[in-house]
């Protein structure tokens, strides 16, 4: 697969960087049988990047919802989603049939992640994961684990990591899978014997469907609906903002506290108008999470299990809401 980037300009790494690199190499040799010479040569080519650390400390998800949504709910991204869905209609239908995830949700995730493959990231993945794994104490253990998974992925799939590009957090390809997700959830949807998340739209589409299915997506179930509150705050109800929470409160209990759902979301984020579907979506024992977002004013939503499944892709309610609203916009604007 083609990667093109020149040698990275390096900042001066902290003193812990080289110690961490050597300890990591020894661990990979001991546990996975890598050649110490090969790893030393590969990782010696990685460069500490202060800009990556800086980006970790100011993520998009730190913004208020009114700013975050403007990044993704744009005419250009909606039109791009319509084009992507039409160009890949058969593959999206196949993924929807296989995994139960609506075509517009898969499309919207790819749109939010990389603008349908137009922005795959500008950082060398080795730079990102070595910088964070050896020089970002707050989450160093996690990123060393992802560097381990990247090297195992390279061995499994025959990937050339020298110039592979990704996000500042080391996410890969059109769906921006971190290496552990690539290894665990990516699928060979085109049947060519490889899982290629850069060049194969079939593998990209199938892998997004696979990921959500493996994170308990419920086919045909609701995702999220706006809510009206009688009291603020509702007595005895946990309300969250950006941080996801698995649905725990029944709609019956929410109703007792004066929380009223305002619309029907028929799985893919479109209104159903069908009384049977409405009854199933709002069954009294269905569980939901009450969410408050800082839009132009306070916005209240009920997020169901499928909304929570989207947050397993990116642990932010802002992210899941952007995916949901982009998927609706694509469907409503003619992306059938």
Question: What would you say this structure looks like, in words?
Answer:
The chain contains 15 helices and 8 strands. It has 336 residues and is of the alpha+beta class. It has 2 domains: 1-48 and 121-172, Helicase, Ruva Protein, domain 3 (Orthogonal Bundle); 63-119 and 217-336, Lysozyme (Orthogonal Bundle), CATH 1.10.530.10. The strands form 2 sheets. Strands 3, 4, 5, 6, 7 and 8 form a 6-stranded mixed β-sheet that branches. It has a two-stranded antiparallel ribbon with strand order 1-2. Helix 5 (75-87) packs across helix 7 (103-114), helix 6 crosses helix 7 (103-114) and helix 8 runs antiparallel to helix 9. It starts with 15 loop residues before the first helix and ends with a helix. Residues 1-8 and 266-276 have low confidence and may be disordered.
Number of separate structural domains: 2
The structural class is alpha+beta
The whole-angstrom Rg is 21 Å
- Poorly predicted sequence stretches spanning 5 or more consecutive residues: 1-8, 266-276
**Average pLDDT rating:** 91
Reported by name, the CATH topology of the largest domain is Lysozyme
Terminal residue distance: 31 Å
């Amino acid at each position: 697969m083609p990667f093109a980037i020149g040698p990275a300009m390096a900042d001066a790494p902290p003193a812990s960087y080289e110690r961490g690199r050597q300890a990591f190499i020894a661990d990979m040799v001991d546990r996975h049988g890598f050649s110490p010479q090969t790893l030393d040569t590969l990782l010696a080519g990685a460069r500490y990047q202060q800009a990556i650390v800086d980006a970790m400390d100011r993520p998009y998800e730190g913004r208020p919802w009114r700013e975050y949504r403007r990044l993704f709910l744009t005419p250009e991204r909606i039109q791009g989603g319509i084009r992507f869905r039409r160009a890949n209609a058969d593959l999206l239908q196949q993924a929807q049939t296989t995994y139960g995830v609506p075509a517009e949700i898969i499309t919207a995730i790819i749109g939010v992640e990389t603008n349908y493959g137009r922005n795959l990231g500008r950082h060398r993945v080795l730079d990102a994961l070595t910088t964070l794994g050896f020089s970002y104490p707050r989450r160093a253990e996690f990123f060393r684990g992802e560097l381990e998974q990247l090297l195992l992925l390279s061995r499994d799939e025959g990937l050339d990591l020298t110039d592979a590009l990704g996000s500042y957090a080391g996410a890969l390809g059109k769906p921006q899978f971190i290496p552990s997700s690539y290894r665990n959830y990516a699928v060979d949807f085109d049947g060519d014997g490889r899982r290629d998340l850069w060049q194969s739209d079939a593998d990209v589409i199938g892998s997004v469907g696979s990921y959500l299915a493996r994170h308990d997506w419920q086919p045909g179930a609701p995702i999220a609906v706006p809510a009206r509150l009688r009291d603020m705050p509702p007595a005895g109800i946990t309300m969250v903002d950006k941080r996801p929470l698995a649905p725990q409160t029944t709609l019956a209990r929410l109703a007792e506290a004066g929380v009223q759902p305002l619309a029907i979301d028929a799985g893919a984020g479109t209104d159903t108008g069908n009384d049977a579907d409405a009854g199933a979506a709002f069954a009294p024992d269905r569980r939901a999470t009450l969410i408050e977002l800082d839009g132009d004013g306070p916005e209240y939503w009920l997020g169901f299990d499928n909304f929570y499944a989207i947050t397993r892709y990116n642990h932010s309610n802002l992210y899941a809401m952007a995916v949901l609203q982009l998927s609706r916009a694509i469907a409503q604007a003619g992306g059938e």
